[in-house]
Specification:
MarR/SlyA-like, 3-stranded antiparallel sheet, DNA-binding
């Protein structure tokens, strides 16, 4: 029988890298969640992600959102309904498929999305404070290597 090699347990550096990535993402999400709680609109993190999707894909359907996000359709239905009820999303009948509804940000949704992007940018700027643009580029390059390794299944 061939002996399997456990590379993860032999590489404390790899563990430290992923602990750091996890901690950074946790702090970022925590900061975003706090900004959402402090916001007078009372929008949740998931609602902001739905808004962001339709900001970048105006006229997409809820089915498109489900395919993109991999989220449960019932959860997405609740999120979309909440955003429509809040006046942040508008819907139109799909001219190609009358059974589908195309969604886009309302003017109110566009304004809210702009505010959310601004608050997110402030958190990102604080996160990279003290790093040069060259260091940021190098970090991105290294993370892309990690991403590629994981996507290829190595």
């Amino acid at each position: 029988m061939r002996k399997q090699v456990d590379k993860v347990n032999q590489s404390p550096a790899a563990e430290r890298v992923f602990d750091a990535i996890h901690t950074v993402m946790h702090l970022y999400r925590s900061g975003r969640s706090q900004a959402f709680r402090d916001d007078e609109h009372g929008i949740t993190h998931m609602e902001s992600r739905v808004l962001n999707y339709f900001a970048h894909h105006p006229g997409a359907t809820q089915k498109d959102l489900a395919a993109h996000s991999g989220r449960d359709k019932a959860q997405l239905t609740r999120l979309v309904r909440s955003l429509r009820d809040g006046g942040y999303l508008e819907s139109k009948e799909d001219v190609k498929d009358r059974r589908s509804t195309c969604l886009q940000l309302s003017p109110q949704g566009q304004a809210l999305h702009g505010e959310l992007m601004k608050s997110g940018a402030q958190i990102l700027e604080r996160a990279v404070d003290g790093l040069s643009s060259e260091q940021c580029e190098e970090l991105v390059r290294l993370l892309e290597i990690i991403q590629g390794n994981l996507e290829s299944g190595r």
